[in-house]
Write a structure and sequence with these properties.
The protein is built from 9 helices and 4 strands. It is α+β, with helices and mostly antiparallel strands and 270 residues long. It starts with 5 loop residues before the first helix and ends with a helix.
Length: 270
């Protein structure tokens, strides 16, 4: 089988870089979107503690301070019945019209709690602790949003771990290439870097049309994408630089020149 030409070898390394860049770019984009979703959802996530209407202003104030002192709570805001009614009018006019038919404002006072990022993991325990007071009649929070935040955090950490492991493996391969290196591989390194850069750009371009539909949008940092391209190029350099200089002949390959030499001698003697 004939050995590949220089052009074919460089094209193979370019395609290798393209595949690695496309894969790394897609993973970095997903990780960035997970982080963006987590930040946006945390900013809107609230635990609402509804207070007893007959407790009075003093009891409401004491309860607000108690809830603010909970370790998972970053912010506590008292919401009066009039504020709740005005908010309902802005968000759902039809429901507001139905409530207005009752006459007197039936909405109870409430305290909105904004939790810390770590507090979302313990939101059922926090809700139970909030509800432990007699001044609190009911506690509500969006269960689906809390689950989505935790899932997004898990996938973001998992993808980040996989990317860091790949970068570590590339760094170790570069160290191995430096230690055992016997040949230069700068052409292969350059074409792998170009392929990986093209793959990273393609991953971003493929996802760009979804920007107008996404509620949360974020892109990977430029230095991380550059580092990924360099890691791909470095791994290709180590792969080529670590190979032996010459080709090692197998025993049957070593017998061929001897057989050819014997045939030539026989022709001369004849």
């Amino acid at each position: 089988m004939p050995a590949p030409s220089t052009r074919q070898r460089l094209a193979a390394f370019f395609v290798l870089g393209l595949v690695l860049g496309l894969t790394g770019g897609a993973l970095q984009l997903i990780e960035s979107h997970c982080r963006a979703f987590e930040r946006g959802a945390l900013a809107e996530f609230r635990v609402v503690a509804f207070l007893n209407r007959g407790a009075g202003q003093a009891a409401w104030k004491v309860e607000e301070e108690r809830l603010r002192a909970l370790p998972e709570v970053e912010e506590a805001r008292f919401v009066s019945p009039d504020e709740s009614l005005a908010s309902l009018k802005r968000e759902d006019p039809e429901l507001f019209d139905a409530v207005a038919l009752v006459g007197e404002n039936p909405l109870p006072p409430a305290v909105e709690l904004r939790l810390s990022p770590e507090g979302v993991t313990r939101v059922p325990q926090t809700a139970a602790e909030v509800h432990s007071s007699e001044a609190v009649s009911e506690v509500r929070y969006p269960v689906s949003t809390a689950s989505a935040i935790l899932h997004s955090r898990f996938y973001g950490h998992y993808i980040g771990l996989a990317l860091n492991a790949a970068l570590t493996a590339a760094a170790l391969s570069i160290l191995g290439g430096v230690w055992f290196g016997r040949a230069a591989a700068w052409s292969e390194t350059l074409w792998t870097w170009l392929g990986s850069a093209a793959g990273l750009g393609a991953a971003l371009l493929f996802a760009l049309p979804m920007r107008r539909h996404a509620l949360w949008w974020d892109t990977p940092e430029v230095w991380r994408m550059f580092l990924w391209a360099c890691a791909c190029a470095g791994a290709a350099w180590a792969l080529v630089a670590s190979r032996p200089r010459g080709h090692r002949l197998e025993p049957r390959d070593q017998e061929r020149p001897v057989a050819v030499l014997d045939a030539g001698r026989a022709e001369r003697d004849g």
